[in-house]
Amino acid sequence: MFEDHLFQSGKISWQLLLYGFEHDIIDRKQLSELATKWVVEDVLGKEQSIICAAEYYESEVVYSTLKALTAQENQEASVSEIWRYVLLKSLIYSCIPNQEKIDRLQQLYSQFDYPADMENCSIYSASKHCPIEAAQDLITKMEKQQLNDHR
Fold first, then answer.
1. CB 3.0 to 4.6 Å from 15: which of 70, 113, 120, 123, for a disulfide?
2. 90 vs 53, 60, 77, 120, 136, CA distance in Å?
3. Is the pTM of this model over 0.90?
């Protein structure tokens, strides 16, 4: 579900995949699918091959390989911010019932350690905005910030 938004963000990196794997956002199968999609046109090295077949390796091997690959990257944006944006957008534009969206939104708020800019997405917020509307506003703000960062 979030994969399309992740690739559309143009921010895919080994660091991003490592963060998702470390924080249980993606499992080994999803990691394999994402890595395969990302490098399918490239000539694969040993490390990349391990990641593309992550579901067949022990988690420790996958983790250490991702760590080695991230050492070769220079990531501009915060990988946690990219994941937060991708997961928020994917959730808000999904076709699940609103109550389920709100429940998952609470989980995301917790998963990312209660970021201040998501405060209005909480059902316990003093704001009178619906958490879904607050999340939509936050997505718009994050997209504007991405545009400003590219200038």
1. 70
2. 25, 29, 19, 18, 11
3. no
Q: Encoding tokens for residue 106?
A: 């609470």
In single-letter form, the type of residue at position 148 comes to: N
Structure tokens of 117? Answer: 């800019």
Confidence of residue 9 (pLDDT cuts 50, 70, 90): confident
Spatial neighbors of 31 by CB under 8 A, at least 6 apart, are 17, 20, 21, 51, 54, 55, 62
Helix (H, G, I), strand (E, B) or coil at 132: helix
Contact status, residue 28 vs residue 90, Cβ threshold 8 Å: no
The tokens for 80 are 């946690």
Tokens linked to 121: 């997405």
d(CA 70, CA 51): 12
What are the tens digits of pLDDT across the range 30-43?
998 888 877 754 44
Q: Which of 44-48, 49-53, 81-85 has the lowest mean pLDDT?
A: 44-48
The whole-chain average pLDDT of the chain stands at 86
Distance CA 6, CA 34 (A): 9
